Structure prediction request, 177 residues.
Amino acid sequence: MYFGEKIRLRAYEKEDAELAHKYFTTPETRKNIDIGIPYPISLREEEKWLETAVRDGECYTFAIETLEDSKYIGGCGINNIDRKNSVATVGISIGDEEYKGKGYGTDAMKTLVNFIFNEVNVNKVKLNVFSFNERAIKSYEKVGFKKEGVLRQEIYRFGKYYDVIVMGILKEEFLNK
Prediction:
């Protein structure tokens, strides 16, 4: 487990499946994490995903749990590692509405980035975020991510096109913060 100030990152357990399904199938969550059509998934698909969540040196998936009451509130992880160029791509989602906008996601991302730079040993962590997800953008900036580019009108939501913002943080920036 890896500890932040408010959260711990731990392995997923079978018992997380029902809450994970609840968290990750809400329209609010799907619109922020799916680049394609935000299509719902079944509980069985969620259980299967949890069974196969791997830590094979390229992907690391963590459940986010509160320190205060050990409540599972979301997930984060490394989606891809480019070993040649020393770059990890990450993602995060706080699924429990009660914990959104209260610093839990920022703490989880900070803890994940710390894990990546100190344990996985890459030089850069990057992510993509939809331009309409202003709360996430502010959270990533608090961790130290910087906007690196904009993929113009890359995603179609709510009847119009939105940008995808590419953000990144370098090891030296994070460790010297």
